[in-house]
Amino acid sequence: MSARVLVVDDIPVNVRLLEAKLSAEYYDVITATSGAEALALIKAEPPDIVLLDIMMPEMDGFEVCRRIKADPATALLPVIMVTALNEQSDRVTGLEAGADDFLTKPVRDLALFARLRSLLRVKMLLDELRLREETSRQMNTLRDVEKRDDLLNGQKILFVGDQADEGELIASIFDENSHADMLTDPGEALEKALAEDYDMVFVSLALSAGDPLRLCSHLRSNVSTRHVPILVLVEESEPDQITKALELGVNDYIMQPINFSEARARALTQSSYRRYHDELRGALEKSVDMAFTDGLTGLYNRRYVTRHLASLAQSQGAEDHETALIMVDIDHFKNVNDSYGHDVGDEVLKEISKRLQLIVRGQDLASRLGGEEFLIVVTNATVENAEGVAERIRSDIANEPITASTPSGNVEVTVSVGVAMRHSTTETPDRQLKRADEALYEAKRGGRDRVVMAA
Amino acid sequence: MSARVLVVDDIPVNVRLLEAKLSAEYYDVITATSGAEALALIKAEPPDIVLLDIMMPEMDGFEVCRRIKADPATALLPVIMVTALNEQSDRVTGLEAGADDFLTKPVRDLALFARLRSLLRVKMLLDELRLREETSRQMNTLRDVEKRDDLLNGQKILFVGDQADEGELIASIFDENSHADMLTDPGEALEKALAEDYDMVFVSLALSAGDPLRLCSHLRSNVSTRHVPILVLVEESEPDQITKALELGVNDYIMQPINFSEARARALTQSSYRRYHDELRGALEKSVDMAFTDGLTGLYNRRYVTRHLASLAQSQGAEDHETALIMVDIDHFKNVNDSYGHDVGDEVLKEISKRLQLIVRGQDLASRLGGEEFLIVVTNATVENAEGVAERIRSDIANEPITASTPSGNVEVTVSVGVAMRHSTTETPDRQLKRADEALYEAKRGGRDRVVMAA
């Protein structure tokens, strides 16, 4: 997948060198020769990834990286530091500034392109979930504010490798509320990873009991482990293994012998992407739920049930079974509110919703249409089924007073119920709903606390 | 990125051959030797992609493909047909059955892996948007029912190539309400693609005026054209060009000389993915909007404004400017409902919402708290600003009767307004809201149709 890459270096020949490499692979390259120029360009022509030199006059690469990661608009932009330095302390400083990786000049092509693809894959998925800016702003109000220090707290991790001391070192990255499982057999590791819900998996590529890359591949291929961050432990002398691992979808690598600070910085970065991803998905799911459920009772709302009925009607052919609509209305609900106040009224609505939800079967649907009115949709129902459900609703509520904050500790209410079976395959949901409503009206007129079946 | 691949072939040696190839590249391979077995396996261990033989006893590959694509649960599962046949009519039958591509045995490794990666990229993005099953079901009620025949109607396409007759042939795939632009220069094509909103772009790889692959790369790198389906036209004798194009993110290819039916089937498939993608994103955005806006007036709802205030408070430091809360309540609104009915009441609420929206500036926010009560949040406000906005709201409503379905054609209403500036950097949104509410109460007590500033 092509993408726009920003190359930042104060030495023009270095810029041109990387530009030529990337351009030959059909990346769209833009360039800057100072930190300030880079930051301006990021706003003007948003790149998908940044290759950033460290040693630059005025603003060095560390500072540029820090500013990119501090701005919410660009915090997710992947940054690879490219440098002549190969001091561990510099790598740690870079990673702690938020850099995603570190490549040493002269840059090996395979390593560069594998890294680009790997980081771009993650970015594309996140971009996809962020939707448009306005939506992203709305969803942000649903996200918890992320504390970077919290990211390694209470984590459940899996270490797969022969060296127990390496496992201990990895486990020590995480705080004491975390839990680490250590295994040496990749088959056993896969089984455990599928059964448990790990926050991060570490795989040593020096594993003797089987092929560690195959384990990574299986973890990526299974739906339940597809999104877990995987970090591989690898000898510095095995760059091709890193490339292969990144191509498989491994998120990052840690060089052996392990440096605590570097390993910790890399784990933090992965944990941070993971959490952001989970929060975005969570916020999306929450907002879809909110759009379709009633805030007070948690039942489906009128909006959802209306659409649901329309799509049922569309998919139902002549051979299909009947759909029953059961309309439920609390009798004299106004009296409850007037006597005990709205809070008690709300308690009653919630408790009745709970009882309705217990009565409906999995494929059926309970909704609150508004006020004290509910609608149950029962698919594939006979007249007897529907009448049975309706009668059970009525009696469940009539026979068991509702616990509420009243002097007596409860409220006695009854409901009236109207039921309409789908008349013919051409009947619209609106017409069927109207018949259920008329049956409900009959039940009210007949003295309430009763079920009436529409003709 | 690794993934699970299902290989289906009735001849075991063929299965083993593909399995070995894929497994060596660390794909997770599952296998079936009949159509029925394949369909069962797809349910039991969902693969990410299917490699499907055509000639099989009992159920042939075309039928297996049709069944996969007809089931909503698996319609997005990419299918590559692998066959010894290379008859155009078979290719067309396969593509029309919904297959994503056609590979001829013996399968070239490069072509196979490029195709797998390209199809998996699209699938991963779609999977990401589908969220969990329940959410996906809810969102489906927001989608328009897709008619496959409609997919090539009213499309706006761009053809980039030297051969006008090829362009005409491509244009003829689409119905007469569609529009095709034809260009020969890739630079001009990029500019046009960035300016216009094309539904599909066709690029001939035999372009003489520049590098066609670079054009594809630029289209993929720009945010505004990132998701447009690109199909390249390529000579059958240039398989490496296909591989390269797929790696860049091109969606599909059409062999020259162009066969009308095959080109049409491929365009249909891409159009269908595109539409599904747009619908998913659209449904997500719509549901986020619905979660945060008031259904009647389109203003933000209480849920949103509450969260918005909380996040404002969190981000506001000592140096920040003031936030003003302006609470607006329609005077004697009950009389409107009682005299003219709820429909007229709703008209009044909508019209007042419209006027509020016209008065607030871009970064400010108008919301409906419920009933006839509204809240305006003005950031970076001085007392004078806030009072000015409040007074303008009051006078705008008092001076211009609201058009409504009443005997006189309108309704005269007034509003009372309470304004509270943020007291100190430690004041919570709740407390500030309470002061605005008290000011509103003062305005009501003082005779209505007036603005009161909280102390």
Describe the structure in brief.
Chain A is an alpha/beta fold and 455 residues long. Chain A has helices spanning 12-24, 35-44, 61-70, 88-96, 109-130, 133-140, 164-173, 186-195, 212-221, 239-248, 260-292, 302-315, 333-340, 342-359, 383-399, 429-445, and strands at 4-8, 28-32, 49-53, 79-83, 101-104, 156-160, 179-183, 200-204, 230-235, 252-256, 324-330, 365-370, 373-378, 402-403, 410-411, 415-421, 451-453.
What topology does this entry show?
The structure is a homodimer of 455-residue chains.
Chain A: E1 4-8, H1 12-24, E2 28-32, H2 35-44, E3 49-53, H3 61-70, E4 79-83, H4 88-96, E5 101-104, H5 109-130, H6 133-140, E6 156-160, H7 164-173, E7 179-183, H8 186-195, E8 200-204, H9 212-221, E9 230-235, H10 239-248, E10 252-256, H11 260-292, H12 302-315, E11 324-330, H13 333-340, H14 342-359, E12 365-370, E13 373-378, H15 383-399, E14 402-403, E15 410-411, E16 415-421, H16 429-445, E17 451-453
Parallel strand pairs in A: 1-2, 1-3, 3-4, 4-5, 6-7, 6-8, 8-9, 9-10, 16-17
Antiparallel strand pairs in A: 11-13, 11-16, 12-13, 14-15
Helix pairs in contact in A: 2-3, 4-11, 5-10, 7-11, 8-9, 13-14, 14-15
As residue ranges, the low-confidence spans of chain A are none
**Radius of gyration of chain A from the CA trace?**
30 Å
Distance between the termini of chain A: 62 Å
**Mean pLDDT across every amino acid position of chain A:** 90
Strand content of chain A: 15-25%
Q: Any idea how many domains of chain A?
A: 3
Shape of chain A: elongated
Q: Going across the biggest sheet of chain A, name each strand in turn.
A: 2-1-3-4-5
**Number of H/I helices of chain A:** 16
Structural class of chain A: alpha/beta
| CATH homolog superfamily of the largest domain in chain A | Reverse transcriptase/Diguanylate cyclase domain
Largest sheet of chain A: 5 strands, parallel
